[in-house]
Amino acid sequence: METSKGILLTVLDVNKDGVQEVKIEFVTRETDFDLGSGSFSDTIVDSYAVLVSKKNGSTTFNKASAHGDIDQNGDIDMEDEQLLFDLANTVIKFKVSSGN
Ligand SMILES: [Ca+2]
Ligand SMILES: [Ca+2]
């Protein structure tokens, strides 16, 4: 059993207004690979999510539903929020099929 932390990014239109938002989920997962049986399990055991959106007609992301000390420098400030915006502004450029 191995525990790891990661970030899951989902582009979606939460409020169906035609403008996409980005959900950023900070997850803790446990993976287990059994060489004998070949079985593999991957379970998210803990997570919290932040929704990043564009407000006031902005072309870039400028609003986060919540944020903590993302860079873990001991304070919660605009730089932490900016990291979330930068992540959202990057992932929105990826062209991934949503499958619907
Ligand atoms: Ca929207
Ligand atoms: Ca900080």
Description:
It is built from one helix and four strands. The protein has one helix spanning 78-91, and strands spanning 2-12, 21-34, 39-53, 63-64. A four-stranded antiparallel beta sheet has the order 1-2-3-4, with helices on one face. The N and C termini lie far apart (34 Å). Bound molecules: calcium ion (CA) (2 copies).
Features:
single chain, 100 residues, mainly beta, four-stranded antiparallel sheet, 14% helix, globular, binds calcium ion
List the helices and strands and how they pair.
Blueprint: E1 2-12, E2 21-34, E3 39-53, E4 63-64, H1 78-91
The protein binds calcium ion (2 copies).
One calcium ion binds next to loops.
Structural class by SSE content: mainly beta
How many DSSP-defined strands? 4
CA-atom Rg in angstroms? 16 Å
Mean pLDDT: 92
Low-confidence stretches: none
| H-E order | EEEEH
Distance between the termini: 34 Å
Shape: globular
| Total helical elements | 1
Number of domains: 1
Strand order of the largest sheet: 1-2-3-4
Sheet having the most strands: 4 strands, antiparallel
Strand content: 35-45%
- Give a list of the ligands: calcium ion
- Amount of helix: 10-25%
Task: Give the gist of this structure.
By secondary structure, the protein is mainly beta. The chain has 1 helix and 4 strands. The protein is globular.
